[in-house]
Amino acid sequence: MHHFNRREDRLFAENVDVTALAEHIGTPFYCYSTATLRQHYTRLKDAFAQNEVTICYSVKANSNLGVIATLADLGSGADVVSEGELRRALLSGIPAGKIVFSGVGKTEAEMTYALNADIAQFNVESRAELEQLSEVATKQGKTARISLRVNPDIDAGTHEKISTGKAENKFGIAWDEAEASYAKAATLPGLEIVGIDIHIGSQITELTPFRNAFTKVADLLEKLTDAGHNITTLDLGGGLGIPYGPEDAPPPSPEDYANLIDEIFGDSGCRIFLEPGRLIAGNAGILVTSVIRTKKGEAKNFIIVDAAMTELMRPTLYGAYHDIQPVITNGNVQDVWDVVGPVCETGDFLGSERSLPEPQKGDLLAIFTCGAYSASLGSSYNTRLSAPEVLVDNEKFEIIRARPQYDDILALEKVPDWLKKA
Ligand code: LLP
């Protein structure tokens, strides 16, 4: 569900006319809907009414301060994977006590920063990381609350590049080493074991992989409790998928997901953390782009637009499908088009073989489901200016990230002194 709707032939974001936005801001730009963000957060939270659950929005999905602050306002916590994301979460008003720090490569500087911020917990992904965190915490005279991210060796049934819970993935502590790693952690100074953490992948569209992984975690919880560890939190990661195409089967509902968690962990007495990203932000954003020109080729017809893989990497990276629609429907006959950007890579496409009415130069297209992993995966390849981000709330809107100027992106670079002409 989202709040991008058509009024007669025109696309609106809540009560804001997308065409008027484009005239004001220029294209390409991302447009996010506050009502959609709120609805997704609230529906998930409400699905867990019976449980003590903390939703730690996974900041990597969409890390704009305006988006994080919208969720902070609803009481969300955050899942972060770098000092940069931690800074964003804190700046957006998320209390440190609701922030979990995941990731395989936390540096000593990042550990120090997070310890000083007094975050809820570190999700530790290896024994070497345990030892380093212990050293850093001891040096700071602090105690790091930790969960161990365990790798349950479960196939999440998703794209191989976003599957994280198989033994061959780089994430988490190998299942067979989990108990020994907890025993080791208990001997290290500066650490307080609080929980267990898993995250098996992203865009998971069936409950079975979650069931398999959670069942293994429940078993581990029992073993660790028997071994005398005081496990009080379970971080079950993110990963619940969303529909991208009109023909996609509906993924499990937040209620089904919540019921599964209640069935497996309802009596555990543990505080549950969740780390959803896409589920909250994915459908809350569109990417609006203008047609530069069309090109009818021998084998294919192309609509060349001013957005590219630099704004939406997902089709290139994962072969992902995103729905594309004209912002204003015209009555032109439909043809089959590849929608491509100006970037000099054959892989730079936004949609292939789409039935769309023949557009004119300057017509606007909306690419749907660009609220997650779109702006945050963006780049300035081909020295392109990153697309601005706009947040709509009912009839209000605000630019929450401006389009940079060329001077801004060139300012950090220089020609070395030895090449400068006297
Ligand atoms: N927690 C951890 C530790 C994660 O690594 C991730 C995502 C999440 C939570 C949030 O997962 P979600 O609820 O959003 O599925 N760029 C890819 C997705 C990469 C996901 C990386 N980790 C894409 O565009 O599909």
UniProtKB/TrEMBL annotation:
What positions does the entry give for substrate binding?
Answer: 278, 314, 318, 345, 373
Location of N6-(pyridoxal phosphate)lysine modifications: 60
The pathway that the record names for this protein is:
Amino-acid biosynthesis; L-lysine biosynthesis via DAP pathway; L-lysine from DL-2,6-diaminopimelate: step 1/1
Name the coenzymes or cofactors required.
pyridoxal 5'-phosphate
Task: Quote the catalytic residue positions.
Answer: 344
Query: Which keywords annotate this record?
Result: Amino-acid biosynthesis, Decarboxylase, Lyase, Lysine biosynthesis, Pyridoxal phosphate
Can you state which reaction this protein catalyses? meso-2,6-diaminopimelate + H(+) = L-lysine + CO2
A Pfam family (short name) is Orn_Arg_deC_N
- GO BP term (any one): lysine biosynthetic process via diaminopimelate
Enzyme Commission number: 4.1.1.20
The highest taxon in the source lineage is: Bacteria
PROSITE patterns (UniProt xref) = ODR_DC_2_2
Q: What class of enzyme is it?
A: lyase
Relate the protein's function as given in its record.
Specifically catalyzes the decarboxylation of meso-diaminopimelate (meso-DAP) to L-lysine.
Which family does the record claim for this protein? Belongs to the Orn/Lys/Arg decarboxylase class-II family. LysA subfamily.
Q: Give the multimer and partner information.
A: Homodimer.
Q: What is this protein called?
A: Diaminopimelate decarboxylase
Q: What organism is the protein native to?
A: Candidatus Micropelagius thuwalensis
